[in-house]
Structures are given as C-alpha cells and as structure tokens.
Amino acid sequence: MSQKEITIYDIAEKLAISAATVSRALQNHPAVNAKTKKRIVDLANELGYQSNKFASNLRKQKTHTIGVIVPRLNSAFMSTVLSGIEKVANNAGYNLIISQSFETHDKEAQNAQTMFNNRVDALVISLAYDTKDYKHLNSFIKKKIPIIFFDRVADKIDATKVLIDNFKAGYQATEHLIQQGCKEILHITGNLSRNVYNDRFEGYKKALEDNGIKYDQKLLICNDLSEKAIEDCLKNDVLKRTKLPDGLFITSDPSAAYALTILKEAGVKVPQDMAIIGFNNDLISRVCEPAISTINYPGNQMGETIARILINHLNGESDINYMNTVILKTDLIVRNSSLKKK
Amino acid sequence: MSQKEITIYDIAEKLAISAATVSRALQNHPAVNAKTKKRIVDLANELGYQSNKFASNLRKQKTHTIGVIVPRLNSAFMSTVLSGIEKVANNAGYNLIISQSFETHDKEAQNAQTMFNNRVDALVISLAYDTKDYKHLNSFIKKKIPIIFFDRVADKIDATKVLIDNFKAGYQATEHLIQQGCKEILHITGNLSRNVYNDRFEGYKKALEDNGIKYDQKLLICNDLSEKAIEDCLKNDVLKRTKLPDGLFITSDPSAAYALTILKEAGVKVPQDMAIIGFNNDLISRVCEPAISTINYPGNQMGETIARILINHLNGESDINYMNTVILKTDLIVRNSSLKKK
C-alpha cells in the first residue's frame, strides 16, 4: 500500500521524452508512432504503472460502475441475468458491483446506501422478498441516478422496468393444465406482495374462471420456494389431504424438480395422478423424469437488455426517462410432466 | 450529473451549527448528542447528501472493493462460491466487482487490467479454460495487491490458493465405480491443462492402476463440458462404439444429468448398463432418476473462506503471504446412478 506510485513522469524521465508523449502513448493516441508507443507501454508494464482511472473518474464525476442488487446470487435464473448484464456492460467499459439482499428489506436498503456512497452511475435491482417501501431508493431518484428494476419490480416508483408478462404466463400455464384435464390445480408460489408472484396468481385465477372452475383457496400455497419449504408443504400438508390435487403449477423450476422428486417417492404418478408445470426453463427441468413442462423465461436476454438500456442512457444516446416498461417474450414449453393426453 | 453536490457545509449552514459537528454526526461519533445527530441525519437524507467515500478512498489509497474474475457467472457452482464471497465481504464493508472471462485468456487479461486500474484492494480469480500464462497478473504481484486463486488455480504463481483435493476426489469417484463392478470407465472431463481436470484425471488413472485395470486412452474424452459437447461426444462417438463403457465419471453435475438424459433416451440402463458419477453435488444431481452419485464440493464454504482470508489480510489481522494453500473437504455421495450392487 505504501509503495511509491509510478507516474508518467517517471516513464518520461527514463525514456528522455516528454510526459505528454507518454500520456498520449498510454491512451493509444494515433499521434505517437508505433515504435515509441511500444517502448513506452513496455516500460510502463515493467515498472507496474497503474493508470489513475480512479482519480480521473473523480474529476469526471463518473465511476463507470453499475450497481446490481439481487435477492440471491445463488440461483440459476439470477446468474443467467447477471451473466447477460455483465457481458454487455463489460464490453461497454462498465464494471458491475454486485450485492445480494438475502431477501430482506434491511440488507437491500443497506446495500443501496453503500452503492449510493460509492457513486455508481446506475442501479439495477430486483426486490427482496419482504421489501415494503422504497425509501432506500429516494437518494438515487433525487440525484437522477438511473434505476432499472427487473423481474421483481416496484409498481409505485416511476422508474424503468424490465420484466415478462407474468399474468399471461400464469394464465398460459394454468390453461395448459386445464386443457390436459386437470380440475383441481394446486398453485405453489412465492410472496404475493411481489409482482411476479401476484401477477402469475392472478393469471392462474383468471384461467380457472374462464374455464368455469371455481377458485379454491385451499389450493394456494405461498412460501419462499426453498427446498425446505417445498418439502414441508408437500409432506405435511398436500400428501396428507384425502383428495390429491390433479395438477400443480409451481413458479420455479428447481422447486418443480424437487417437488417432482418428493411426489414420485410418495408414489404419486406424474402426470397421470398429478400433472406438473414449472417456471423459467432451467436445465433442471429438462433432465427430470418425466421432463417438466415450464414457461421459458429468457434471463440472459433480460440481462443484456437491461445493460443496453442503461449504457445507451449513460452515453447520452437515448433517455431512459422515456422508457417505462420493457416486456420480454415468454413461451409455454410442454413436456411429459403435464401431458396427460398424448 | 451536473446537479449541485450537497456538502456538510450546506447542512451546517441550514442548522446553524459547525461543519465539524455535522461531519462527526454523519460518522456516528459519540461526541454528538442523539437529538442533534438525528436532526443532522434527517436533513442530510432530505437534501440527498452523499458521503464522499469515493474521495476519501482516494486519499486512503483503499477502495474497499474486491475484484472477482470467474470463467462464467452462469454456473451453479460459481454462483454458490460468489454468494459465499459476497456475504462475508459485504458484512465486512467490502464491495465486489465481478466480471467473467467467458473462458478466454484475452478477456481474462483485459478484465484483470480493468480491475487493476480501478484499484481493487484484492483480486480473486478462477482461471479461464485456455489461460496459458499469468503475465496479466504481474502488475498485481508487483504492487503487492493480494491475489487468491480458487478452484482453477495457477501452480506457477506464489499466491494463495483455495481448492479441494481434486486428485483424491477423482480417485474416490473412480474407486467407487470399480467397487461396483465397473471395468471400463469412461472419463468425460474438461481441459487437462487446468489443475482441476488434470488432478481428477490423475486420480482416475491411479485408482485404475491400484485396482489392476489398464488405463485405455479411448476412455478419456476432454471437451468444454457444455450441453452441446456432451451431446456430441455421446451421440457421435460413445453410443456408436461396439462395446459401451460400463461406467462413467463425468466432472460436473449438470453434464452428468444431461448425459444421463441422453443415455436413457438411447435405451442405456443406468446403473445396470452404465453406472454414473458426477461432480459438485448441485441440486440437479438429486432430482434426476436415478439420482446421480457425486462428489460434494462445498462452493459456499469455499466462497466464505476466500473472503475471510482476504479481509483478515486487508485489515492487517493476518498475513496472506504465510498462507499458501487451503484445501477444503469433499465427500463421496453415493446414490442410485452408480449402485449396481444393492
């Protein structure tokens, strides 16, 4: 830490040329000839010269960093989105600072404050399970630092949102099960105060209604979709019911795969006794037996879209304030877990 | 961007108190009484005051950021490690800058340079598939910026490594298949110039040797373990062989799950015709039918360990230079995909 910093003046002195030439060469300026450039760059590397992006950022009031807050890094869907954001942002010269809220409002607020103090140029956020208000984002809004919400978005804030049509996806999944002959469709999902789960649930209810099936609240189970929660609700509730539901719409593929495993162990035949449909189209849905029907949710494209919108805004090419909502396309993917009628 | 920055002087003026008091209050100094502190903090929030961590970092020559370069973000194993690093780093007040090399040396070198210029306090790296030399890390070494390698490590650099005993794990996996009666064990794995794959391969060979089975190089297939590569080598090679191998040791669980699906489709009975063992203990290995035997690789603990070592070093509590290699424990997990003898 306390080592002497190598400057362009040190390089200039050693090569007996001007500091201005060194500076231009290190920025790959065309006015410096290739041979000189090489001598300068080689010496810079040898001496361990570090361009002072940090100080230059401070002057420009830009950090070229984008803050990203996600509920959990450890999720196939999230890692696909992050991969898409990182790819586009990195190519445009932006770094990602990533943190996780662990599904709590407090940690999310704390992470937002840290990112604000670190002067990220933009914030990308998918809300925690229990985030109730958005006060922790006020400082960004006041300072006109662009915010993009994705997947789990805030309806009450006037910021850009990138998401899918969760209502439609929920409707499609449920309608598919009904078309396969299911009449009692269990819906296992997350916290209904989050748009993604609420909208899918509304789609589920509407599909039932449109097909003359009365909504039964005993067929709705909300939990955090963890392995523990899935095991719990199936073993201690669903599998003990006198009559098993004949369909299951569960809003994540890992949960669907895990539920399938538990149901099979309990002797439930899928799809004959219970047809299953998941959500996301993760690899896990394809390797199960039977393979699990699902809704294709293009996480990678979502990530790339988010980064492109932000970078165009930050570069002044387009104004994010005119773009309120971007809805990405989803598809119903039918596999054997739900095909009662072949 | 061009908005006027709120300073402690603005807050001091509005409250008719000294800037020093404002500064102390915002740092939660005990000398300022609670009531005054609250007035100051409330006004700071209202005005959108942003603590200048950025400039203060510049003065202190510390950024409180840790750079992390991984081959791909989109991997269950990597996201588990990242989640562990982030959790510990975040609690200690450090931010993570994360980037992916997309398995190429060039992108890895470019990302390392960006992180160096952004003055990360430390670098955490798992090497790309084709990284051949480590010149791109010289600037860190010269500047005494600590580097921790994990999983895919560089043997030739004197830096801290956090990994598992890949030789032992490869030996155990192979030995288990031999104990189940396998005599021709196919080994599908990654680039052997990476330690993780080479060490597992050496373990595989040693287990064969110790059990009097001659190593046959036709039973070694190296590729990038992508879905495409797995499909390719199975459909266009393995499944066309006159005699099928009776065992398969494949060094990642998603690949093992995908291979299982393809083999089952082709009518191969698992484990009777071919016993399978994977690597990592991802959820995907548990939901397959049959469930896939594997090596438990504690990604989350690996991430937490890495972050703790770094933070202890950065806080001056322990010196990373005395810690060369940390080896985490793995376990053989036997499931039905390899149980020929029940």
TrEMBL record, chains A, B:
HTH lacI-type domain residues: 6-60
Keyword Ribosomal protein: no
A single MF term (Gene Ontology): DNA-binding transcription factor activity
UniProt xrefs under InterPro entries: HTH_LacI, LacI/GalR-like_sensor, Lambda_DNA-bd_dom_sf, Peripla_BP_I
Alphabetical keyword list: DNA-binding, Transcription, Transcription regulation
Keyword NADP recorded: no
SMART domains: HTH_LACI
Annotated PROSITE patterns: HTH_LACI_2
Official protein name in the record: Transcriptional regulator, LacI family
Provenance organism: Pseudopedobacter saltans (strain ATCC 51119 / DSM 12145 / JCM 21818 / CCUG 39354 / LMG 10337 / NBRC 100064 / NCIMB 13643)
